Amino acid sequence: MKASMTQGPLEKEFPYRYETHCHCCWCSACAMSEPQEMAQAYRDRGYAGMVLTDHFLLGNTAVDRHLPWEEKMLRYWEAYQAAKAWGDAHDFSVFFGLEHQYGGGKEVLTYGVDLEFLLSHPDLHRLPLSEYAALVHQAGGFLSMAHPFRDRPYIDMTIQPQPEFLDGAEVFNYFNHDPENQQASRFAKEHHLLPTSGGDVHRAEDPAIGMAGVALRHPAKSIQDLIDAWEARDYCLIVQGELKEV
Questions:
Q1: Residue 44 domain-assigned?
Q2: CATH number, domain at 93?
Q3: Most-buried pick from 24, 60, 120, 231 (CB within 10 A)?
Q4: Quick one: which of 68, 79, 95 has its CA closest to 29?
């Protein structure tokens, strides 16, 4: 589905919009909407797809941490499958991702892993970022640091980003303050990281829907298509609803 807000030359060249950072209530304790509701909300705003990036086990998860590993991973996959089933019936792509909190409230958005990967690595969430990143990259995945310089009471600001383990950085997060996003943009440029943009949306009625993400020339049929576009720098950022060249 092409975005309905196509007007300028960039919008015509990059008509397919994707959210890269959103949550649902099945797996994120801070979210308020069902996975199907999230998919519908983005489709209604003209997006072609979204990546469901629920909080992993050290973050604000809604998954019972006392469950066996396989059952915990199935909870994440079931939420994704529910959103995907809705999307498949309505010409809307849904891809799987995670937001992994690796310490002190610092988080990385994880793309390109699947259920088989998760089941193969019990206690993945307990690994230091260096080992977590190595496994994700071995699987062909992509890591972008979520809101790198968000300053909140629950985040340990003495823990600095570790660019050597990252592929990208979220230079626009809808809920960040402008100086936080500006610092993230400088950080990405300094360390040659690919810029990403995310709405960080937790409910289907959120005003952030339509305000963030990435826009592609061609529809992404898989998460790998999205990763390939990032790595080729063949995309635009969505910043406050407008397209911005990278």
A1: yes
A2: 3.20.20.140
A3: 24
A4: 79
Rounded to two decimals, the pTM is 0.96
pLDDT digits (tens, 9 = 90+) for 199-244: 999 999 999 999 999 999 999 999 999 999 999 999 999 999 999 9
Count of structural domains, the chain? 1
CA angle 140, 144, 147 (to 5 degrees): 165
Tell me the C-alpha to C-alpha distance, in Å, between residue 25 and each of 75, 186, 203.
Answer: 11, 33, 8
- Tell me the pLDDT tens digit for each residue of 124-144: 999 999 999 999 999 999 999
Cα→Cα distances 187→130, 131, 139, 162, 240, Å: 19, 22, 26, 11, 20
What values do phi and psi take at 200, rounded to 5?
55, 45
Where in the sequence is the domain holding 130, given as residue range(s)? 9-245
**Residue 34 exposed, middle or buried by CB count within 10 Å (0-12, 13-18, 19+):** middle
Distance CA 72, CA 76 (A): 7
